């Protein structure tokens, strides 16, 4: 088994070499890509176009398979992140630190921040929606401590922060994200 | 294929940026054509990060829908492929991050187990194809261990197969910076994949 | 560690006392004595009864005060609980929560820790069963924690609840009791920053997540003793995730952590030790 494993790894390295061999200035043909043979492109475009054409109103696409696929993508979009780095942008103005919480949830009608620093009561901590569908709020927090928090979408869906590197069991059946300042 | 005036132009392939400019005006069919040029690569790119075909299809589809809706902000003096891949990179990043650590671990363990199972099974049939699939999984696994700054150019260059100039434009870096990162990454991957003697039991499907 | 939350446990609670409750426990004993001398004092002109009236009255008032403080704290908590749960779905849990809390508070657990968790449970719309299970588990851990802190002046009162909450989070998420105990001991000895200690505990919990065997070793103490600032703790977690992806075991990661951060090294040293 080990020699076969070794064979597989050598092949993996050869695949990298093959790509290099084609030159940096050229795109590599699909056949040369590790996952290029799946030929999923057509199906992907078909579903994308169906979504685009159905516009903003109806979220249910007739065929069951498509709807499930769309919901999966939408669910992902709901907890996706806008910024390319972390969710939290640190705008330092001395102490305490201003922390910006961001959540991308273009389909949400409201997003609140619930955390140990606001007694888990979201009122007064409503995020503001930006034109690109991302929500954000800036909160002053003391440095040198760690905090637990969640986002609450549409007043009822509690989610952790996908961009935070740690999320911990809250003992109440869910998880909270952890932030160390 | 239905005959339409566009087919006449097939011989003169319209470049991406021109198509994108037309699509900006809301021409869905033009966007579709543009999307088809890159959808396989987009899928391959997402598949490399996410490890599941369905997730990859969802993310690639997601990226295209977002690309369409964000067309107004696309600057046609920049390569369209770079732009759509930077959108895909964000979608994939968020999908990747959306899996909790436990899920990520489960994915990795099941991938390793799949490789281990395959390696121990007595397989007949298209051996080369099976090996390639397994090798792709190994690559995916190894790349996951790279830092974010090395992972992105690797995925765009090796998994999506884009040329360095496009990779650079997608990441907002210079071409030389991309090449240097690719080189470092390649060395690191060589070590990860070349090092078959793992001292701890982690690789044995722990 | 199993504790029964009944009247018998009150005695146990007294044994595991610390800080305020230590005074309260002493106060209980002394107040009995004090009340005797108090009775004596209240009879003016009785020779010998007031041999050192100022000392005994000082002791008595301190003890009484401590007891009174403890009782006040319990009353205040009960009032708060009644008001907070009134009319809500979790109102039925009130009496059980009071029972749990009074034992724990007697052991030295700060009321604010309970309040925080109860608020969290209400906000997250936990069912009564879920909430009670969570609070009972927390209380067990907190009582154990109070025992660890027995006799220590650390942490300062206003930072205590925060530390208790971080510790129960860490214990719930895989950090071993021995590890927490080690950290508390060192932190108390060095009067470490309590918030930082709490952050080290929750970060150690996060470090266990990527690895299947979830052993955190002494990561919490290593972090706390390191030269890292709290805002760098997240980067350590990210390194753990990468290490796991690259096939490292938790043991190897922890060894690297100890060999670098544990010896005064930097994040870069850890990165290099892991990934070259």
Give a written overview of the molecule.
- The longest helix of chain A has 20 residues, at 2-21.
- Chain A starts with a helix and ends with a strand.
- In chain A, the strands form 2 sheets. In chain A, strands 3, 6, 7, 8 and 9 form a 5-stranded antiparallel sheet that branches. A 4-stranded antiparallel sheet of chain A has the order 1-2-5-4, with no helix packed on it.
- In chain A, 27% of the residues lie in helices and 25% in strands.
- Chain A is of the alpha+beta class and 181 residues long.
- The relative contact order of chain A is 0.11.
- The N and C termini of chain B lie far apart (52 Å).
- Chain B is 73% helix and 0% strand.
- With 206 residues, chain B is an all-alpha fold.
- Chain B has 2 domains: 1-98, Orthogonal Bundle (Rna Polymerase Sigma Factor, Chain: A), CATH 1.10.1740.10; 103-206, Arc Repressor Mutant, subunit A, CATH 1.10.10.
- Chain C has helices spanning 7-15, 19-41, 53-85, 94-106, 111-123, 128-148, 157-172, 177-190, 194-208, 219-225, 233-245, 250-260, 267-275.
- The model of chain C is unreliable at 1-55 (pLDDT under 50).
- Chain C has 2 domains: 1-29 and 60-151, no CATH class; 156-276, no CATH class.
- Chain C is elongated and about 60 Å long.
- In chain C, helix 6 (128-148) packs across helix 7 (157-172).
- Chain C is mainly α.
- Chain C contains 13 helices and no strands.
- Chains in contact: A-B, A-C, B-C.
- The interface between A and B is large, with 62 and 69 residues.
Helices, strands, pairings?
The complex is a heterotrimer of chains A (181), B (206) and C (276).
Chain A: H1 2-21, H2 41-54, H3 64-78, E1 89-91, E2 97-104, E3 111-115, E4 128-129, E5 134-141, E6 146-153, E7 157-159, E8 167-169, E9 175-180
Antiparallel strand pairs in A: 1-2, 2-5, 3-6, 4-5, 6-7, 6-9, 8-9
Chain B: H1 5-8, H2 16-24, H3 28-50, H4 53-69, H5 80-98, H6 101-120, H7 127-144, H8 148-159, H9 164-171, H10 175-194
Helix pairs in contact in B: 2-3, 3-4, 3-5, 4-5, 5-9, 6-7, 8-9, 8-10, 9-10
Chain C: H1 7-15, H2 19-41, H3 53-85, H4 94-106, H5 111-123, H6 128-148, H7 157-172, H8 177-190, H9 194-208, H10 219-225, H11 233-245, H12 250-260, H13 267-275
Helix pairs in contact in C: 1-4, 2-3, 3-4, 4-6, 5-6, 5-7, 6-7, 7-9, 8-10, 9-10, 9-11, 11-13, 12-13
